[in-house]
Amino acid sequence: MKLLEEKILSEGKVLPGSIIKVDGFLNHRVDTKFLNLVADQFKKYFDVGNITAVLTAEASGIPVATICAHNYGVPLIFAKKAKSDNIENGLYKSEVFSYTYRKTVTLILSKEWLGPNDRVLIIDDFMANGNAVHGLLDIVNQAGASLEGIGIVIEKGFQGGGDKFREMKGVKYRALAVIDSIDGQKMTFRKFDE
Amino acid sequence: MKLLEEKILSEGKVLPGSIIKVDGFLNHRVDTKFLNLVADQFKKYFDVGNITAVLTAEASGIPVATICAHNYGVPLIFAKKAKSDNIENGLYKSEVFSYTYRKTVTLILSKEWLGPNDRVLIIDDFMANGNAVHGLLDIVNQAGASLEGIGIVIEKGFQGGGDKFREMKGVKYRALAVIDSIDGQKMTFRKFDE
């Protein structure tokens, strides 16, 4: 997505540890108008008329996934990081290692909110090594739900997570911008057909 | 908001510790269509044409605040709970005690994203004792920004947080449903003019 690449180049910064900071439009101060364009772009790749929910993980994926769900007219479901005792009944659980926080967290989702009749689109803001999305996929499988696809706003291609999903049979995976290398503040994007 | 009260009564549950569980439409599985009506209702109380951002706190306030920001055509800003080392530069910080998690957390917001020229509407899903919103108000003051008001979806009136804001001079505070007492599974709502 050309406009997204331009926005990453003009507003993004590279921090030590190959961390790409785009929190001025994606995940701290959130440009809701721009995220409409992101939602429109995902619509080109996924059959959003045929999904029952958008699924993401707490916390930074929630804004973009909320706008996608809102614009597609379906509920947003977000997996929580285990810590609250507010969730009764059965839970789907998946342990994932968080790259950002450098520790293992357990994603949880109440069994009440996802089941075999659901068809979900997973949306997240970032793909690094793919652990969070693997956890979400694990939860979709536990629920017996079906997957429409996985849509990522920014993929850090050099960390390999996205390519693992591209190789998975029967999984539609699209990232709107793939950063294949970082050299100082210089980012190089992977070229592909939109 | 009559429709909200009906939804709380028909879909909500009371858990031990006076916890009101409405995670089927507000903060786990999120009913994006219903939240449009919530955003419309806040519009009756606040001059949303005159704000520069909607502000909330991670994580459960993000869906409703995102839909409000989206529908009002302004950015969403969410304060994070301190834990990531992804945030460089200066930060606004406010320590708050979380009722849900029974511990003190530090809300942080990068100084880049809020300043004296901003006029913000604070939106959150729940008001219990009001600590999280006090933290957000503290951050608004640190930034020198001005406050349009505070909009809460569900207030637990018996915990007193909302009344503290109602008594504050110069602060517009509105909750769309105020639960004044809980007896078993029976909830009693405060009556007020819409």
Key structural traits:
homodimer; 194 residues; alpha/beta; Rossmann fold; two-stranded antiparallel sheet; 5 helices; globular
Question: Would you mind describing this structure in some detail?
Answer:
The model of chain A has no long low-confidence stretch (mean pLDDT 93). Chain A is 28% helix and 36% strand. The longest helix of chain A has 14 residues, at 32-45. Chain A has a single domain, classed as Rossmann fold. An 8-stranded mixed β-sheet of chain A has the order 6-7-5-4-8-9-10-11, sandwiched between helices. Chain A starts with a helix and ends in a 5-residue tail after the last strand. The first copy, chain A, is globular, with a radius of gyration of 16 Å. Chain A is built from 5 helices and 11 strands. Chain A is α/β, with parallel strands linked by helices and 194 residues long. The interface between A and B is large, with 42 and 42 residues.
If you consult CATH, what is the topology of chain A?
Rossmann fold
CATH architecture grouping of chain A: 3-Layer(aba) Sandwich
Number of domains of chain A: 1
Query: What is the helix content of chain A?
Result: 25-40%
Number of strands of chain A: 11
Structural class of chain A: alpha/beta
Strand residue content of chain A: 35-45%
Q: What oligomeric state is this?
A: homodimer
